[in-house]
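step 4 of 6: structure.
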Amino acid sequence: MFVRLQSDPFDPGAETNAFLHQYAESGALVSFTGTVRSTPDKPVDTLTLEHYPALAQKQITRFAEQAISRFDLTDIGVIHRFGALKRGEVIVMVLAVAPHRQAAFDGANYVMDWLKTDAPFWKQETGPDGTKWVAAKAGDDAARGKWED
Amino acid sequence: MKVLYFAWLRERLNRSADEFDVPDTVITVGDLLAWIGQNDEAAALAFEDPRLIRAACDEELVDHSTPIAGVKTIALFPPMTGG
């Protein structure tokens, strides 16, 4: 398992291939990549992510360990960036490896749902109308809620 | 006790940390918010809606009713927006 928090860009394809190579015989790999969204009606030039490093590392490691044990994953990897990112840049990646596809999908989904609401990152968007903090979404709490026992 | 502030809380308080000698009458995280706000108008305004203030005691997420005795570092921040 790995959890990497970094400001530097990374290559999601290379990360996926490295994990695939390592776990070629495992059966299933699901990768999720999140990027800085910019649309014509909501243009974003820069997304700046502030974080609380020690707690972020601890929380994401916890979610990854929980996913491994809950879905019997072979392994999981998470990379999350911080700092100033341009539109279209990669923010986050989750790689989940399992013997079968459903566990791999569920494991990646679980980690993403938890880190949306319980990993200490805060997003600030800069666009043509200035800079503003992104508010937490109730939908993210609801998505996380589906995994609670 | 060290208190850390993040995101818009840090901006509104115009600092990222405080070092406090907290009196024994301050029992919980919620008490601490009220106590900081007593002597600091910007903090009182920033803490006005407690639903928007999350907390972590020594790197564990906690709620406002959690006791703070023995805690070394408390982080205060808005709802998280990771991913």
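step 5 of 6: annotate
 - Chain B has a mean pLDDT of 97.
 - The beta strands of chain B are 2-5, 17-19, 54-57, 60-62, 73-77.
step 6 of 6: archive
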